[in-house]
Design goal:
Strand content: 25-35%
Order of helices and strands: EHHHHEEEEEEHHEEEEHHEEEEHE
Radius of gyration: 18 Å
Strand order of the largest sheet: 10-9-8-7-6-5-4-1-16
CATH class: Alpha Beta
Helix content: 25-40%
Largest sheet: 9 strands, mixed
């Protein structure tokens, strides 16, 4: 019989200019694991960050200062440029009022950080971090929600280097107010590997962007179902050799899409450990670590860490107004 293991997510609040935020982020990096270092041309990553997000580059400068290192080293470790990451899985469903998502990965490499950030330059957002400065998913003050879905970590295009989707999600949250703006940014930023980006905005618009290093296909929808494979004929050859699990999750989501789900009922379906959407293969980088529901219209967030977790509710709108006190830690349990 499996034993239960405690799983925690620290709640991090960040406000100020990009450099100050970087200093605060650097304080969180002691004794943390990092992604594999590549032999990427860091100067190329630095140039691209300067083009697409000077404030993100400034945050990395503050982080470097706090760590007592140089900016190139901070970019190499935390900028998400040409890094290698293990496989992961994710499942998302959205209708016109909410966006719900399970994140599946390995608990040892999990950041375990829910970050609420209010920068002087850029949109405020709430979301789960990866490599501290990147985002696995999130929602910003404009009601734009986004999440990533790794399709194939083995597919790269020769001669093309770029960013991990975690960095791109962060740039989207910082800069974009609508689905169309987010899709346009994804098309511009060079990146590695093959990902789906699932996106929803305050107006109820949604989209899936199928993205490879060499091509992007945008599917605009009134609702959204997204797992870990490409659907378009143009990109199907980039899928993993076996996508059976991803297809089964998609089929189950299609049955849910016909129901009159509320944010809380959707949360319980996703977070129930007996659900077809909940997985326990943590050693294989495919165990459910958190469930999150973003509600763009009123900026509510419903969160569960681990499985069968009593939901935590946060009003991002109240946090922005300084009208709420947040817990320091969100916690739950998983099978170990």
């Amino acid at each position: 019989m499996n034993q239960r293991k405690n799983l925690q997510a620290k709640v991090v609040e960040l406000k100020g200019d990009a450099y100050q935020i970087g200093l605060k982020q650097g304080a969180a990096l002691k004794n943390r694991r990092t992604a594999d270092i590549s032999d990427a041309d860091v100067s190329a990553g630095r140039k691209l960050l300067d083009e697409f997000s000077p404030s993100f580059l400034e945050e990395l400068a503050g982080l470097a200062n706090k760590l007592g290192t140089d900016l190139d080293t901070a970019i190499r470790f935390y900028g998400g440029y040409n890094l290698q990451m293990p496989s992961m899985g994710c499942t998302s469903l959205a209708n016109r009022s909410f966006y719900v998502r399970n994140y599946d990965f390995n608990d040892v490499l999990y950041d375990g950080r829910l970050v609420l950030i209010k920068p002087n330059n850029g949109y405020a957002s709430i979301g789960f971090s990866q490599q501290v400065v990147g985002r696995l998913d999130g929602m910003n003050e404009k009601g734009l929600a986004v999440g990533l879905h790794l399709v194939n970590e083995k597919v790269e295009q020769e001669g093309i280097q770029g960013f991990l989707a975690t960095t791109i999600c962060r740039l989207i949250l910082d800069q974009c107010a609508s689905v169309k703006e987010a899709a346009a940014l994804i098309k511009q930023v060079p990146h590695q590997y093959c990902y789906n980006f699932s996106i929803m905005d305050k107006e109820g618009n949604s989209a899936i962007v199928e993205s490879t290093p060499g091509a992007k296909v945008v599917h605009y929808n009134s609702g959204l179902i997204c797992t870990n494979h490409f659907r378009s004929g143009k990109l199907k050859n980039k899928n993993r050799p076996s996508i059976d699990v991803s297809l089964r999750r998609k089929k189950y989501l299609e049955t849910l899409d016909k129901e009159n789900l509320t944010p809380i009922s959707a949360y319980h379906i996703f977070n129930n450990e007996d659900s077809p959407l909940f997985f326990k293969h943590y050693k294989e980088y495919f165990g459910t670590l958190h469930t999150v529901v973003y509600c763009p219209q009123d900026l509510r967030v419903i969160i569960g860490v681990g499985g069968d977790c009593e939901p935590y509710a946060i009003s991002f709108d109240e946090w922005l107004a300084g009208e709420t006190t947040l817990p320091k830690i969100l916690e739950g349990t998983i099978d170990c």
